[in-house]
Amino acid sequence: MRLLDKRPKAKMESSSKPFMPFIQSVSVGKGCKELAIHQLLTNLQLNVLALVQS
Prior knowledge:
Structural class: mainly alpha
Number of strands: 0
Distance between the termini: 34 Å
Order of helices and strands: HHH
Radius of gyration: 15 Å
Helix content: over 70%
């Protein structure tokens, strides 16, 4: 049962992988906080648009 319970979590992790490059870009851009904040706001706007359109 535990192995079956872990599989859905793995699927959720793989579905969230598109966010990883964004997280990496923010961590790399810590010295440039304005750029990181701009990327964060852009990502949030894209998420909202995707939710509205769906």
